[in-house]
Structure prediction request, 122 residues.
Amino acid sequence: MSSEKEKESSTIILMNDEIKNVHREKSNLRDFWIGFIAPVTPSIILCIWFNLAGGDVDDLPICLGFMASICIWPVIGSNIASNPNLSDSMRNGGRISAKISIFVGIMIWLSFFSLMGGGIAN
Prediction:
């Protein structure tokens, strides 16, 4: 009788450990995505605003705000990646976001300079 209870209790303990591991993995995945998405959020918001404004208002301040947010993106990602108080998965998300932002930022700035160099009216 006692051996059956021991088997049952060990099964319950294993199930509880598995549930805790699943919750821990979900938490790590959530932290990664927060670290990955948080730095790019200002750029996405200003990009949407810039595209929605599209000629109705003076576009230059919105465009400059978007370009400034592109410059801030790698700074925020690097700050998240170097903060020891955050979880490792969130820091990894920030690190990957910072690396992607450098490439994307260079491409967007090159297209911006190309547009400005050729003249907006052309």
